[in-house]
Amino acid sequence: MLTVQFLITTAYGAASFYLYTLIVYMMIRRWNEYNTTFFKIFIIEYCFNLITFVNSFITLRAPQNTCKECVFAFLFDRSSNPTVDNSPLQYFFTLHYAMAYIQYSMTFLMALNRLSMVVLVNTVIVIYPMYMTWPIASNNTYYLYTPPMGAYATKSVVDVTDILNNLIYFMLGITILTAVANVLAVIRLGCLPSRISGAERNLFTVSFVSAIIQLIALGDTLILRFGVSDAMSVGTQTAKVLMPFVSDLLTLNHPWTLMYFSTKVRLSMANDHFPSLRKRISNIPSSVY
């Protein structure tokens, strides 16, 4: 289980969520300063991304980095019979697909927010993914050892082809809508330069970076999905290698982009958590928020 890839992804994931948690904690402590729709979405997104990251250890990271002779292989062998109830594995596998819907939706909401539209994060964001992935939740899930991979994979007794196809169509549609929202935001920034604050410009940049990463993740997913007939091609193999890192980038980019583009967040973090950096950060030009 302790492969190089597992150690690297776990290390940068833990570091990212440590920073992520500190930022959210700082915002809650300073809620009178951060009580805006953008930061509310940021905090909600943190909760969903944390669930996604933790859940990935059960459905992806641990099984895909465990060989048949590994010390912890017995944990997966215990849940390898498709005819035996392996609860609650099917619920974790349901979250695996449902969180993809939610992550793409949250990026779209962030883009809408930069258009100064009034958007409420409501139950539709959660209910729709759960509805689409219900066949997985209501059927047995198990671990299958795959000799070509030399590791385990999470499988469901139901055919997930339709679920995966619907997810890809959703990802494609929501990415197009996100792109449209960002283009409109750029036009708005260009048409009203004097009325748009530096704060809003740089929070738009945070949203825009997330949209670009979402587009990269979608492209990687499409290559893998439609490259099945040519699985050994350079493009498909490259996409397969990049997939775990692209998925992590989609989940973990938010604290880093916000810290980079927002001087206000950096100053708040320095004051609350890193006082030794306060003077250095205060000397940074205030051209960013």
Notes on the protein architecture:
The chain has 289 residues and is mainly alpha-helical. It has one domain: Rhopdopsin 7-helix transmembrane proteins. 71% of the residues lie in helices and 4% in strands. The protein is built from 12 helices and 2 strands, in the order H-H-H-H-H-H-H-E-E-H-H-H-H-H. Strands 1-2 form a two-stranded antiparallel sheet. Strand 1 and strand 2 form a beta hairpin. The longest helix has 31 residues. About 2% of the residues have low confidence.
**In terms of per-residue confidence, which ranges show pLDDT below 50 for 5 or more consecutive residues?**
117-121
CATH architecture: Up-down Bundle
CATH topology: Rhopdopsin 7-helix transmembrane proteins
User: Which strand order spans the largest sheet, edge to edge or round the barrel?
Assistant: 1-2
Give the SSE order as H and E letters: HHHHHHHEEHHHHH
Query: If helices are DSSP runs of H or I spanning 4 or more residues, what is the number of helices?
Result: 12
Structural class: mainly alpha
Helix % is over 70%
Identify the CATH homologous superfamily. Answer: Rhodopsin 7-helix transmembrane proteins
CATH class: Mainly Alpha
